[in-house]
Amino acid sequence: MAHTRQTLTNSVVIYASLVFFSAEAVCDGVDYCQETDLKETGRDLLNEHEASYRVVAIGDLHGDLQNAHRVLQLSKVIDENGSWIGGNTRLVQTGDLLDRGPNSLELLDLFARLKDEAENVGGTVTCLLGNHELMTLQGDLRYVSRTELKALAAKTLPAAGDTEQAGNLANGRQEWSRLFQPGQIHGHRLRSDREAMAVVGEAECRTLFVHA
């Protein structure tokens, strides 16, 4: 429970710091990035000008699907059904979708779907590589949720007739590793659809995002 609250807190802090900025409203001919209170400046400007787009950044979600939905709804990029409503918003997820929480694979699917939905209406969803994505690619599964591994084994092994081993952690780890091989969808996503860094925004408010 403590981890769940901390995940939400970290994400909201990142969201609150960045959601008020847009390339046009904040950087329209004035060096507003020199202001000492960027958040208040951005809020005031958006009250006076129509933004060309918003930039929303969300940090480590670590398999916490419930709070991921809460943060994305708070950011006004998804509705209660999990569908994209962010229009041309630029959403940046700065890595570490995986590990710790029990819904890492569902989070990967969620952000892949949101990327497609956003692009259909002029928005973008950029997911960066975090150290936990790299750990999975390197075969280091120390922080993968035991609950998720057991559920993965129980879901896949009975289909192969191996009901006695369903729920076994070792078999869960084996299946997890298989899902992230180059020829598998999750493995393909991490290898071809993730950057180490991203630059979003324009003029003085161009922002470099990395996983720290």
Cα shape: globular
Mind describing the biggest β-sheet? 3 strands, parallel
- In angstroms, what is the radius of gyration? 19 Å
What is the H/E order? HHHEHEHEHHHHEE
Tally of structural domains: 1
Distance between the termini: 24 Å
- Average pLDDT rating: 80
Domain Calcineurin-like phosphoesterase: 54-141
Protein name: Calcineurin-like phosphoesterase domain-containing protein
GO molecular function: hydrolase activity
Signal peptide: 1-29
List the helices and strands and how they pair.
Layout: H1 2-18, H2 23-26, H3 38-48, E1 55-58, H4 65-74, E2 90-93, H5 104-120, E3 124-127, H6 131-137, H7 146-156, H8 169-179, H9 185-192, E4 197-200, E5 207-210
Parallel strand pairs: 1-2, 2-3
Antiparallel strand pairs: 4-5
Helix pairs in contact: 1-4, 7-8
Task: Explain what this protein looks like in three dimensions.
One of its GO terms (molecular function) is hydrolase activity. It contains nine helices and five strands. It is mainly α and 212 residues long. The chain has one domain (2-19, 54-205). The strands form two sheets. A three-stranded parallel β-sheet has the order 1-2-3. It has a two-stranded antiparallel sheet with strand order 4-5. A hairpin with a 6-residue loop joins strand 4 and strand 5 (207-210). Helix 1 (2-18) runs parallel beside helix 4 (65-74) and helix 7 packs across helix 8. It is globular, with a radius of gyration of 19 Å. The two termini are 24 Å apart. The model is unreliable at 1-39 and 45-50 (pLDDT under 50).
